[in-house]
Give the backbone structure.
Amino acid sequence: MILAALRNPRIVLALCAVLGLSACAQTSVTRGLMTETTIEAPTVSATALPRFNVVQINVQVPRSLKVSELNTYKPVADIVWHGDPLGDRYEQVAAVVKAGFAAGTREMHGNRAVVVDVAVKRFHAVTPKTYYTIGGWHEIELLMMVRDARTGAELMEAHRVTLNFRSLKGADAANAEATGQTQKVRIISHLAAAIRAEMSVPANYIGF
């Protein structure tokens, strides 16, 4: 699913260059693709957030990513998601990522309107078999960039963000589900913390 803002050739090329999607153009981006950041859901004070106003969040989940519905301990796939009823996993994953990023940027009330573009590289949550027994890791890899909403200028160039954190397990998982702390709720919360952390590091921005 490629949203309207991602039809901008410069944005698509930047995202494709890192993801290596076969359907994308072969042209390389001019900016180097930077460091990979591993986020472990840090807490960022609202006062530390940049003076931006996130007016749009675009999430792309390439259809070239492999989906598995196997209920094994760790299926070999790019997308493993059982936190919603059986359906279009690409759309479901996009909705989860967008919800997390929206929650994480909700308190940004600055004067400069910006757009956040996100491409999902991996979204590997745990299966029910793993969740209710030994537990495992939620593994999420994204590519993100930030642009000025008015001019389209890059403020944060395309770079990889990795968010890995432990799932609950066994009785703890069952109790959490019963009280509404589902896998989806916990993942959205960690995504919110990740985007807040990413957007609060001045060194991540171009020309700042």
Residues 89-105 form the longest helix (17 residues).
